[in-house]
Amino acid sequence: MSPQPLLQQVSGDRLRRDLYHLSRDPLPFRKVNYTRPGQHIHSLAEADLYIRSQLEAAGWPVKTTPYQVQPFRCDRSKPLHHWYAKPDPTDPFYEAANLEATWPGREKPEQLLQLISHKDSMSWIDSPGAHDNAVGTVANLELARLIPLCGLRRSVRILFCNEEHTPWTSRFAAEEAAARGDQIYAVLNVDSLDGKPDEEMAAGRHVHVITHSTEEGKELAEFVAGCAARHGIDLEVRLAFKEHINDDDGMFINAGFRNTVMNLGSWPYADSEYHLPGDTPDRVNIENVVRSTQLLLAALIDLDAQG
Q: Quick one: pLDDT band at residue 4, thresholds 50, 70, 90?
């Protein structure tokens, strides 16, 4: 199947359905320290069940790896968007899992294209976390539905991890991949798509930002950005250098996978409701998420086509 028909199969209806499921109804939050009335598992575990169900429905086997994490404490004396504070050692631990799914390549299954999205919302406040990072989660779910149609030569692995609790569970996945000697060809972190300044939201601008922290990442970012023109995706793509090696992409860079970038809606991150209760799904421009998901799918296809 040629790339253009595949790109047109990215569904705004499915993205919206998944987004509202994970950030409004039935799940207002995705964190270990909140359990919905009448439920026996916390809301992050409920999110895991939904993500797993969608992956398995698309034919992906799912590996679940549990870790012990703590919620952050809330310190309202800190700057507005950064109220999180280290937990006390005596604070309770909870189980939070990494979900990993791999679609095998038909010619070079040992070579991997790695997608990442953190699936949890803020553990220190009650925030739906729609932009941060339900949108990245649902974009990767939509990619999982379409990747089996691509006939890629290389394998694609998707990691759904946790970044709003401590420790960040992407670090474990990255370190385990390095210890195994995984041949990861490129790493695409998908976090906060469409999260941008209020004026750009009001203007309905469709923006996609790709950040890089290494020279190898810069080359990858330029390649991904070029996919918009190559495939006729009407999206304003910007590149930015991210000085601090952090977030889930940083965990992979620190583990030695330098061909890594982060995909989001603005940099420096400018969503006015970042890490706040107002990060609700009705603020998300679904068409922007559709076009960003198309760009990511095009990037996977083009990266796989390279020698």
A: confident
State the residue for tokens 């890629």.
152
Q: pTM value?
A: 0.98
Report phi then psi at 284, rounded to 5: -85, 130
Q: Where are the domains of the chain?
A: 3-305
Q: Would you say 212 and 220 are in contact if contact means Cβ atoms under 8 Å apart?
A: yes
Round to whole Å and give the CA distance between 208 and 106. 30
C-alpha span between 216 and 220 (Å, rounded): 6
How far apart CA 131 and CA 61 sit, in angstroms, is 27
pLDDT for 243 equals: 97
Spatial CA neighbour of 132 closest among 264, 44, 224: 264
Mean pLDDT calculated for residue range 243-271: 98
Q: Does domain 3-305 have CATH number 3.40.630.10?
A: yes
Return d(Cα 55, Cα 61) in angstroms, integer: 7
* The residue to which tokens 């495939």 are assigned: 231
